[in-house]
Structures are given as structure tokens and as C-alpha cells.
Amino acid sequence: MSSARPEPGARLPGAFGLRLGLWYAGLFVTSGLALVLLTYALLASALAQRDRDLVLSALQQYVAQYRRSGLDAVREAVASDRMAGRHEGLFVRVLGPRAEALFASVPSSWVGLDLRSLVPPGSEAEPGWTLLPGPGAVFEVASARLEDGTLFQVGKSTEVRSDILLRFRRAAALLFLSSLVFAVAGGVLITRSALAPLRRLNAVLGGIVRTGQVSGRVSVRGDGDPLDDLSRLFNGMLDRIEALIAGLRGSLDNVAHDLRTPLARLRAVLEGALREGADAEALRRSLCAAVEEADRVSSTLTTLMDISEAENGAMALRRERLDAREPLRESVDLYEDVAEEKGIPLEIEVPEGLAVSADRARLRQALANLVDNALKYTPRGGRVRLSARTEGAWVVFECADDGPGISPEDLPRIWDRLYRGDQSRSERGLGLGLSLVRAIARAHGGEATVESSPGRGAAFRLRIPARITDL
Amino acid sequence: MRVLIVEDDETIAAFVAKGLREAGFAVDHSPDGREGLDMAIAGAYDAAIVDVMLPGLDGRALVEALRRRGVRTPVLILSARHSVDDRVRGLQAGGDDYMVKPFAFAELLARIQALVRRATGAPEATRLAVGDLEMDLLTREVRRGGTKIDLRPREQALLEHLMRNAGKVVSKTMILSHVYNYAFDPGTNVVDVLVHRLREKIDRDFEPKLLQTARGMGYVLRAS
Asked: Is residue A233 domain-shared with residue A326, that is, in the same domain?
């Protein structure tokens, strides 16, 4: 069933990569095209303006000449201009009031045009423009009628201009085509390099889905790029998952180990009873012992579940604002008689009105475990002091005894499950208490610590945030 | 008094049924949730013990269906899960009490009796007596054979609990929860110490000894 499905995520980079590439190429080409079109428009209008300026200045010059010295002077000026190579290719015509041609200088390219239609209105101050479409080019003519009815006309072919623009268009087309090639190639390259982390991510993810092994990691460049960040986060997530799986395996091992011992005792008691025979009183004693062992299994299991719930964050804490004195007093309440039996005074020292936000039952359980532990290790005549104080945003509960203390090599291991220091082998009870204390402290967002040296007692501390918002 | 047990584990059902019969209850049993619901609706039971994990219909749904039909029989829910949320869900479904497996029979019996007492509204006694030991619940005064005995508050609470359950075994778990309001296993035997102190006061100078240890099960206060 799963083999019929496409590789998870395998299609994504293809479609995504194509889209990314197309976007890149499209943007590149569009902006290139816009640039070329703009340049072309500017060039065309600049060339047209230049031609018209030329025509107008020639027109003004000839009209001025006509006013000053008459038509002959104009004729001479045109001839000399043409000789000098200035105004070459300019069409110049002067018409009388009745449209009779008084003078005309017609360049060769103008031959064959119908010039009769070139009698537009127009004054000297505001020359009128006429466009004359001809073969291969457009001819622009400016006309100015003087007060005496004389019509001056100067014209120019747009042939040169069109030629320049044609060349420009050719060059632009070539440029555009090559930019298209660059855009596509660039798009492909950029997409490839941009999507490389994603592809690596896919490969690792695919491997994990296929094999179920979460040991794979994505290579990270560390350049702060969002995809690189994604890879880093992904690795972080894998680390967490791996730790959780290891934790689960570990707690399963612990549960198996912790339960096997009392179960073995239970079995031994029952088997012993079976072997011993039919003495009713002996059977009764064995059965009583069996019930006690079974209760111990049950209680161990409950404690283990509490620890693992607290450790994996599944413990439902009902946090409320408490006076720190209450859980301390309640713990002392529980052990007062035991302490009195052992001749150990239990003292409480809490400042007035010290508030803590915690699950009342769990905090009391943790403190009770610390008191239990302290009473176990403190010899007759010793003292156990319970206190609470604020340290910044924390409320620190302390349970200090003047017992034999803990040796430096034991210190880091006392929080381990079922660990008991050497001298306590004879004491009854499971070594789960301190694990539970630490788990409860951590479930509250706090921590459990210990300070001790041999012969100088031990001080267990429970740091709990004073307010929930401080979490 | 009739009690219905809806439990698919035959061993547990037989164990509970036997104990309840010995305590004077008439007991019916069904291993199936649907059948159990029909029986609970049809029969006039004084209490029902319902497991959560059942074939046919789970225990919580059974209790919900029962309450929807207006049947007010007190129900004690049994479960192998011990989380607080599970307990809350069981009670929200309409259960009156909740117990986690494994359990001590003495505790189950005490709870069933409490449920029945609550449901029938039996009048509260103002005086408790076991043999020549007496407790006045109003003045908190305790006497044995006329001699006044001074008890500390915790000893008094323990004695009251034992006297209310006279003749029945009271487990350590029950004592922790009733006297100390503590729901966890305290490791060191807190209860043994308290029982020892109480025994010193009510039994040491008197005969016969009333407070006996039922090994593996708990303690019992008995006149004989």
C-alpha cells in the first residue's frame, strides 16, 4: 500500500523548482524588455526632436534672409549651404501667394513625390507640420506663411532616423534573445542552488520514513539562510525525537528492572509456600507476605508512572497559589510521629506570607519524600530542618539533616532510579523517592539539588517558580 | 442489600462477589457492558461496581446511559489507570466513586458501604462503641470501661475511622487517605507508627485487645 504512493515530498522540489525558475526568468526578461522599450522610446523621440529642430532652424534662417535681402539671397544661402555640406538633404520650397513655385531645392530622394498636397496653413510664428508618406521613409515638412502671402517650406526625410532606429531594434532583439537564454539558465542554476538544502532535507526525511532510523541529520552551512534555518530546526527536532525515543526505551528498561525484583520476591514467597507443605499457619504467613509484595509491586508501578508522567510532561498539575508553609506543615504532619519515635525533632522555618504556585498534592509528595529520606538517614538525636525562602523569582524549599551525609562519588547518582548509597542497604524502601522528587520539581519548571559532604549532613533543595508566569 | 458487578475479568469478579456475599450482600454479576446496563436498569440495586474496560459498552458509557435514564443507583468505577484525569472523567460520567486496580478488598467494601449509606440517608450516629470502648462524636471524648483516654487529633481520627468500620479490615491506604488526606505511598511506615501509638493508649492497659493487625491487609478493631 505504501509502496504505491509516490515518495513523500519527492514531487515538491520539481514543481516548486520549476515555478521558482519560471518566476526568476519571467522577472528577468520582463525587466530587460521594459528597459529596452524605454530606451527605444527615448531614442526615437530624441532623434525626432533633433530633426525637427534642424528643420525649424533652417526655416527661420531662410525666412530671415528673405526678409532682409529677398528671394535671391535665400536661393544663394541654400546653394551655399548645400555646397558647404550643411543642411544636406533638406527640401526647401518657396511658394507665392497663388501657390506658384518661386523657388525649390528638391533632394534626389524627394523626386516623384506629390508635392501639391503640401500647402497647409501655418504662420511664421507657428509653422505647421505636414507628413508626407513616401517609399521607404516619411517626409516631414514645416510650412510658414509670411504676411505677404509667401509660403516657406523646409522638409527633411526621416530615412536616416528610421535607419538608426532599425539598427537599434535589431541590436535590441539580439540582446533580448540572449538575455532570455541567460534568464532561463540563471533561473535553473539559482533554483538548483537555492533548493539544494530542501533536497538534502528530503533525502534525509525520505531515509527516516523508509528505514525508521532517526539517526540521519541534514548538513547545515550556518549562513543564517531561512532554508538553512529550516535544516537546523529539523535537526533539532530529530535530536528531540531521538532523545524521547531513548527516554522511552530507558524508562521501559527501568520499569522492567524495577518490577522484576519485587515480582521475583513474590514468586519466591509463593513457591516457598507450595514447597513447605500443608502447615496452615505457614501457608497463611506466606500468603500475607505475598499480598505485601504484590502491594509493593503496585506501589512501585504507581511511582514509576508518576515519575515518567512528570518527566515527559504528561503529569496533570493543578497549580494554585499556596502559602509555602502549608505543604511544609502537611509533610511534617505526616512524619511527626515517626520522627518522635526516632527522637528526631522536625523543625519548620518559613517567612510569613511566602507564596508559591504549585500543585498542592505533588509538592507535598515531593517534600514528604525528602522528609522520609532525611529521617531514614539521620541517626537518633539528630535534627531535620525544613525551610522555605525566596530567591529571585523562585521559592526554594530545603530539607536539611545532620546525618552522615553523602560521599562525593554518590552525589551525582542519588537521583538515579533505585540507586541507594552503600550504608543504606539495610534500610527498607525503594530508591525511587528522589527520582520522583526531581521529576516533580522539573514538571513545575523547577529543579531539585543537593548539597552534602560526608559527616556534615545533607541539604536537599527544591526550586519552584514563585509564579506561573515565570515559567 | 443488592450489588451488581459488571466486570469481565472472572478472577476479580469472583473475588469481589465472594467477599461481598460474606459481608451480607446479594450479588449479581455480568461480564458484558450492554448486558450489565440492562441488568442495572431492570433490577433495583443498592449499588453497582463497574469496570472501565468492558466488552460491549465501556464502563463510563454504561454509567452515562444509566444516568440518562434517570437511574440513581450509586456506582463505583474500577479502572487500571490511575491518572487524575481518568478519575475526573469517571466521576463526570456520573460515577459516585472511583478505585484503581489493584485494590484491597477491605477498601472496596468500605467504599461500597459508604455509597449505600449515603444513598439511603441513614442517620448519623453521635456515639460510637466497640466493646467497652466508646467515642462521643460531639464532645470528642473517648472512654474505655469508664476510663477517659486522651488522644491526639490524629489518633482520634484513626480511632474514629476504625470504629466506624468496626469488625472490618481497614487498609493502610485507607488510613493514609482518611487520617492524613495523603494519596501516595509514603515509603516509611507512617501508619504503623500511628497505629502503635493508638494501641498503646487504648489496648495496653486493657483486656481484651481490640486493635488487631491483619497481616498483608491492614488493621481491624474487633470487640471479640
From this structure: no
**Which domain does B51 fall in, by range?**
2-120
Q: What is the pLDDT of residues B163-191, one digit of tens each?
A: 988 888 888 888 888 888 787 777 678 89
Q: B215 at the A interface (CB within 8 A)?
A: yes
Which residues of chain A lie closer than 8 angstroms to B154, CB-CB?
A: 333, 337
Q: Are residues A34 and A143 in the same domain?
A: yes
Quote the CA–CA distance of A71 and A248 in Å, as a whole number: 112
Q: What are the pLDDT digits (tens) for B90-104? A: 788 888 998 888 888
Confidence check: pLDDT of A123 > 60 = no
Q: Are residues A280 and A348 in the same domain?
A: no
Closest Cα partner for B4 from B58, B74, B69? B74
Q: From the candidates A295, A299, A330, A375, which should be mutated to test the interface with B, based on the most B CB atoms within 10 A?
A: A295
Examine the domain organization and report whether A141 and A242 are in the same domain: no
> How many interchain CB pairs under 8 A, A with B?
63
Using CB atoms, pick whichever of B85, B188, B217 lies closest to residue A372: B188
Which of A298, A315, A420 should be substituted to probe chain B, the one whose Cβ sees the most B Cβ atoms within 10 Å? A298
List of E strands, A266-393: 319-323, 346-349, 355-359, 384-391
Establish if A268 belongs to a structural domain: yes
Range from A425-434, B38-47, B62-71, B135-144 carrying the lowest mean pLDDT: A425-434
pLDDT at A357 over 70: yes
Cell of B130: 466497640
Q: How far apart, in whole angstroms, are the C-alpha atoms of residue B169 and residue B6? A: 24
B197 to chain A, any CB pair closer than 8 A? The answer is yes
**Residue B219: per-residue pLDDT:** 92
Residue B211's pLDDT is 92
Question: Quick one: cell of A336?
Answer: 511527626
Closest CB from A285, A309, A337 relative to B193: A337
Torsions phi, psi of A410, nearest 5?
A: -85, -25
**Domain hosting residue A395, numbered range:** 317-470
pLDDT higher than threshold 70 for residue A426: no
Q: What is the tens place of the pLDDT at every residue in A376-411?
A: 888 888 999 999 999 988 999 999 998 888 888 778
Statement: residue A209 has pLDDT above 50? yes
Q: Which of A302, A334, A433 sits opposite B182 (nearest CB)?
A: A334
User: What is Dmax (Cα atoms) for chain B?
Assistant: 59
Q: Do B84 and A316 touch (CB under 8 A)?
A: yes
Cell of A305: 508512572
Parallel, antiparallel or unpaired: strands A458-465 and B2-6: unpaired
